Amino acid sequence: MNRIILLLLALTFLFNSSEGQIVLKEALSERQTYYKINATLNPETKTVTGDMEAYWVNKSPDLVPDIRLHLYMNAFKSNKTSFFSNRMISEKKNDFGWINLLSFDDRKGNDLLPGLKYISPDDNNPDDQTVVSVMLPAPAKPGDTVFIQVKFETKLPKGSARTGYNDDYFFVAQWFPKFGVYEPAGMRYAVEGAWNCHQFHSNSEFYANHSVYDVAVTVPADYITGSGGMLINEENAPDGKTKTLTYRAEDIVDFAWTTWPGYAVYTDQWKHVKITLLLPHVRKDQVERQFTAVKNALEYLTENVGPFPWPHLTFVDPPTVGSFAGGMEYTTLFTSASGDKVPEFLHVTEMVTVHEFGHAYFMGILASNEFEEPWLDEGVNTFWEGRIMDHYWGNNSGLINHPLFKMSDKSMARISYLSSPDRQTVTNREFSWDYPHDSYGMMSYQKAGIVLHTLMGLIGEDAMNEVFKEYYRRWAFKHPSGKDFVAVFNDVVPKIHGDKFGPDMNWFFDQTLYGTGIADYAVNSFSNVKIRDFKGIVSEADSMKFVTNVTKDDSVYISKVMLNRLGEVCLPVDVMIHFDNGDTIMEYWDGKARFMDYKYTGTRQVDWVKLDPGYKLKMDANFVNNSQTKDPDRVPLRRYIDKFTIFMQYFINIISL
Amino acid sequence: MKILYNLKTGAVSSLRSWKGIVLNWLILFILISLVSLPVRSGFKSMLGSSMVTELLQDSINADVITDLLQPFMDMFSALTTGFFLIIILSFFLNAFITGGLFTILRDSVPEKKASVFFSGAAANFWSFLVIIIINIMIFSLVTGIIIAVPFVLLSAGKSESSFMSTGGSFMRIAFIIAALLIPLMLLTTDYARAWKADRPEAGAFSAIGFGFSKTFKSFFTSYPMMLLLVIIQAAFGWLTVSKLLSAKPSAGGALFLYFILAQILFIVRLWFRAWRYGSVTAAMQESETKKLYPEYESDMTFVTDPEKNVIIQSENHPL
After folding, report:
1. How far is CA A425 from the centre of its chain?
2. How would you label B191-203 residue by residue, b for 16+ Cβ within 10 Å and e otherwise?
3. A1-260 in CATH: which number?
4. What is the pLDDT of residues A286-339, one digit of tens each?
5. CB A561 within 8 A of CB A579
6. Residue A235: is its pLDDT beyond 50?
7. Would you kindly state where each structural domain of chain B is located, as residue ranges?
8. How far apart are CA B170 and CA B55, in angstroms?
9. Can you tell me the distance from the alpha carbon of B80 to that of B73, in angstroms, rounded to the nearest whole number?
10. Alpha-carbon separation of residue A34 from A182, A370, B311 (angstroms)
11. Residue A602's CB: how many other CB atoms inside 10 A?
12. Between the CA of residue A35 and those of A172, A401, A615, B21, what are the distances in Å?
């Protein structure tokens, strides 16, 4: 009886804790899961021992016989796991990491370990233990809360895939048993209720419910620690050797933390958000750059997508010794990547910071399934990274701003996509681990990013912002899928542009994101043919005039502009035609036919023709063939050749003593 | 005083040898044009009558590079071969040209004629080539050891974090030492070449031996002189190259002026190098003369008797 009362008391505390508001004024998500973890780091054995209480609420109409959890640290357990098969590499034996479940009880204290079974839903790999199914004593009914108490021991691997240790540096991610997502019929692509709980793969980490985390970590007293939670309490052990830091995080999809004695801690404030930066002391020169980057991203995404709701944000610039942890996202904790000296003209550090912060929106708030639709967080985030970088650091110099060479962030994505031999190999319908020829990165990040830049070129920046604001309104703190994303475009774009692009935008996504075609429009040629003895009326520049071809000035020409669609992708495109009398005509070609000819009769001659004059269709595989002129400007080319000559002269002069 | 005298003598003799410097420029310019002109034609052909060059006005544009990637890669393979051929050829040509320059920079050659330049260039070609190659090999080896040994010692048996905290300063010191070796390499090479140009019958290895012995015997006067010359040359080179490479003339006329200015500045740069050769030659000649005439002072002026081919004393300073 006492035991039951104690348990009820404990549950009362637990539920108060999980549903109460400490960080946020109100719950942002359904909070279908909750975790309370007491973790202790042993820096000598590189292990974290944990005591976890957690629950999952069955909000589906189904009877659910089991629960499924990720045990991602087992990805590093042997060189035969799916993670290592994806990577085609093997690790040294002493690098291995794993998670051992020491006990696994339900709320009544029943031992659930006998019903535990490792499963490999993605590839049936018997050597992979990154997903576990635990049979419940009785199926969970709709509305039931499944409560578990787990004791676990996690051995961290030596720095690998953004988790582990190196010397005294620790980045503790993917470290505790975490619930999968139960998808009832109708949710995303589910036709019947089932757990969506994928194995740990080389290219994807995230798909989880938004949860509340109460995590206490015990580390050596001289270690500096950061996490995705808000620091609630810090307490030193009586012997002074260790300290325990208690964090609270609300409505995030994963909880990670880092600890290292060498961190310097800096804080800054952006509106309601307290920003904490952890980085090595030697990089203090980069503090301002880092804060500027994250504040720019906060401002831009808040303005154009939706609010950043949390009052806290921690980010880490890992030291060289912890470089394995660089470039990763855990919503309210993320890692940047840089070096001790990064030249001012190179904005790579800012780019990583902006990108990883962006995941707070695309994956964190809009919690899509990275395993099944990696483009929906990585590609969408790459698109916003490009916009932010080029907005704040220069439209042509978002990534590199050197007098000799400038590069926008968008251009970087375009280069990766267009120069890849696999740009037409597969569509973006693949699961993250199924992309052939190592094309995952190019397809999920760059191609998807460039597709969205192209779409923005078509519908305009304002319409694009409206779409994302609506996407945020509909899907924040839920699990949108690719079809939900497209549906927002289908609803918003016609409201803004009417039927200019048709009743929906499916034609665009089917060709680009879900197609393998290439977009390439070209000016074939243009000509001006003089007509002898012309008499008649010609119309020019909104006026009509009668012309008799008697003097040289009255010569009449038939000007012909011939255009081609060389690629498979059909996009509407603007055509700018300039005449020798200064007139400029803007034509609109729907881009569907393989060719288009424009013919003009008048006293003026065509000087030059430009397709997509603003270079907005970033998918276009070749900007060079987008224009033709009678008088090409050779000055830039001559200048570069002159500079090449100068460089060679000095270079040879130096090396020849 | 000796340093200033040598620098002054070097400056005067190099100015008087302007024809050699212009020849040097011309040969190098023609050589580089063998690659730059086909590259220009290649790009013209790739760009055709496109207006995409508007994207190249500000700087090299990544989008245009992407679009020209395939033809550029095709051209690039030819370009890299051409580049290496130019480097090798320029090495040979430089051995030839410096042979001529060191010959006409000597006091004993009052008329800095092209014929003397070319005969000296031909006579010294192989020896100069050997001197340059051997000296570069020696100093590359020494520099490699200076940089590699601390790196290996520091990284062995140390954790990455502790290496990163201390390794940086050690490596910086190693690089500074390696940089300070550059004037030493130039001194030994220049002394060897100056000595060889003065003694047509001597071998390349004897000249290298002289270069090293002379460098270390006169270290405290020669090294500061060379260090000064290297700093001046490097500063001039850095300033001109950085300014020229970042300049953006956008009209045809401005581009033409830019090109002319760039070539004039490069000729000045070549003169700086000839000044170095002249100063080292003056230092070498001074010490060699002192061997023959111990009473010789650096401010004495000598003239050559063309018939007897001996140095005779000047009127102001009878020996």
Report:
1. 22
2. bbbbbbbbeeebe
3. 2.60.40.1730
4. 999 999 999 999 999 999 999 999 999 999 999 989 999 999 999 999 999 998
5. no
6. yes
7. 2-47+59-300
8. 44
9. 10
10. 14, 21, 100
11. 18
12. 16, 45, 49, 79
Of the options 1.20.1540, 1.25.40, 1.10.390, 3.40.50, the CATH number for the domain spanning A377-511: 1.10.390
DSSP string, A97-138: -EEEEEEEEETT--B-GGGEEE--TTT--TT--SEEEEEEEE
Average pLDDT over residues A383-392: 97
Cα of A221 vs its chain's centroid, Å = 36
Structure tokens at A442: 């190019």
Residue of B35, B54, B189 lying closest to A657 (CB–CB): B189
Q: What is the DSSP letter of B298?
A: T
DSSP state of A204: B
- The predicted-structure confidence for B74-122, as pLDDT tens digits, reads as follows 888 878 888 888 888 888 998 999 999 999 888 777 777 888 888 889 9
For chain A, the domains span 1-260, 377-511, 521-636
**Residue B302 CB-density burial (10 A; 0-12 exposed, 13-18 middle, 19+ buried):** middle
User: Other C-beta atoms within 10 Å of B145: how many?
Assistant: 12
B22 touches chain A (CB under 8 A): no
> How many residues are recorded in chain B?
319
For residue range A357-367, list pLDDT tens digits in order.
Answer: 999 999 999 99
Interface of B with A in 63-122 (CB under 8 A): 63-69, 86-87, 90-91, 94, 98
Residues A641, B46: C-beta atoms closer than 8 Å: no
Residue appearing with tokens 């919503």: A331
**Inter-residue contact A521 to A569 (CB < 8 Å):** no
Collapsing DSSP to helix, strand or coil, A276 comes out as strand
Strand A178-179 and strand A606-611: the pairing is unpaired
Complex prediction ipTM:
0.86
Yes or no, beta carbons of A653 and B28 under 8 Å apart = yes
CB A250 within 8 A of CB A21: yes
Of B32, B46, B94, the CB nearest to A649: B32
Beta-strand pair A263-270/A257-260: unpaired
Average pLDDT value for residue range B125-153: 86
Question: In angstroms, rounded to a whole number, what is the distance separating the alpha carbons of residues B21 and A184?
Answer: 84
**B residues 175-204 near A, CB within 8 Å?**
185-186, 189
The closest of B113, B280, B95, B295 to B198, measured between CA atoms, is: B280
Show contacts of B201-204: CB within 8 Å, 24+ apart. B202/B127, B203/B127, B204/B126, B204/B127, B204/B128, B204/B130, B204/B131, B204/B134
Q: Is B284 on the interface with A (CB under 8 A)?
A: no
Using a CB–CB cutoff of 8 Å, tell me whether B255 touches chain A: yes
Considering only CB atoms, which chain B residues are within 8 Å of A638?
40, 255
The span from the CA of A510 to the CA of A515, in Å, is 6
Cross-chain Cβ contact A639/B61 below 8 Å: no
How many C-beta atoms lie closer than 10 Å to residue A196's C-beta?
20
Of the partner residues B36, B61, B90, the one whose CB lies closest to the CB of residue A645? B36
Residue A637 has pLDDT above 80, yes or no: yes
- In Å, what is the CA distance from A553 to each residue of A54, A139, A437, A518? 87, 91, 62, 45
For chain B, how big is the Rg over CA atoms in Å? 24
CB-neighbour burial class of residue A572 (10 A; exposed 0-12, middle 13-18, buried 19+): middle
Strands A273-280 and A312-316 come out as parallel
Q: Which long-range contacts (CB under 8 A, 24 or more apart) does B291-296 make?
A: B293/B319, B295/B319
Euclidean distance between CA atoms A237 and A119, whole angstroms: 40
Q: Show residues of chain A in contact with B90, CB under 8 Å.
A: 652, 656
